[in-house]
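User: Show me a protein chain along with its predicted structure.
Assistant: Here is one chain, sequence first, then structure tokens.
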Amino acid sequence: MSRKSTVVIISLIVLVATILIALAISQNSNGTKKKSTNNIKAKYVSTITAKYASFDTHVNALGRVNSFEKVDLYSEVQGTLNDNAKNFKIGNKFKKGEIIISINSDKTELDLKSVKSKFHSLLTSLMPDIKNDYSKHFDNWIKYLNNFQIDKDIQELPEFDDKLKFYLSNKNVFNSFYEIKNLELLLNKHSLIAPFDGVITESMIDKGGLVRPSQKLGQISSINNFELELSVDANDLDLVKIGSKVDVFNEMDAKITEGRVSRIAGNIDLNTQTIKVFISINSSNIKDGMYLKGKIPGAKLEKVVKIERSALVNNTSVYFIKNGKLDRAEIEVIRLDNSVAYIRGINEGTEIVNEALANVQIGANIKSSKELK
């Protein structure tokens, strides 16, 4: 046999051997892959059996509490603070009608008594002329003069006609009368009376200190009347009505009181697409500045399936289990709440995957976690 023939035969043998080895490896790989696929364990997921029912919905929102009655106090008079009033310190409470700030009024009282005394003397000097020239008015004016008391608020002047009016005006009776009224009003401003039951939330004065006109003294707020300001999604606005009852919860989801929808803003926030809804609350269990949750009753949904919002796939479909395999179905979303979705379009009795799934493929082996129980 020639050398050339020998080389050809050896090359054919090597080629055939290579092909056989490749086929053997390929068959072994396919067999392993098939065996591996058949042995993949099914994944267990949380599911819910689709069942159509009716549900009462709620509008949930978080907001800040503000005192409904909050007043900044300013002085309209000058003087030193008295010691006989309420200790005006932050946290001190007071009752409606109680004097919470008292400013010394000795000078104003003396000025008032002086002006009243002059007014009394003026009227006394006018009585003879009134008796002679305006006799029909004399009885009323002499009675007014006899009942005049310097230590009490001045009474309104007796009746007069145009003729007597010109006479009294010429004698500065009206000018003196309104000067007294002005001083009486000024005297009342030396005492600040509580307009409601409340608490001192800001204090900028101390007893014995000098107070000047227009000086801020502090701030008071109600301890019972509050407003909870909620930011409600604009899409839920049709569910919110004035007067609707609202359950109020703290941040631990414990109900602490109830309220009513009192006001709804007339504009929508362009950035957040929410609208302000104000809840009126009368309770001693809350404080100004707290953050609370409000639950407002919404519409009743008929013939819907309730699932976890996280179970939605792109808000258009859901996963479900069919014959132990994962499948997907298009649905109609009726309403979305914070963590819940209400849907239609799925057959009743379908085992819906009730949790979010990531990196899954349709047809994958899957089982309900109910089977583990």
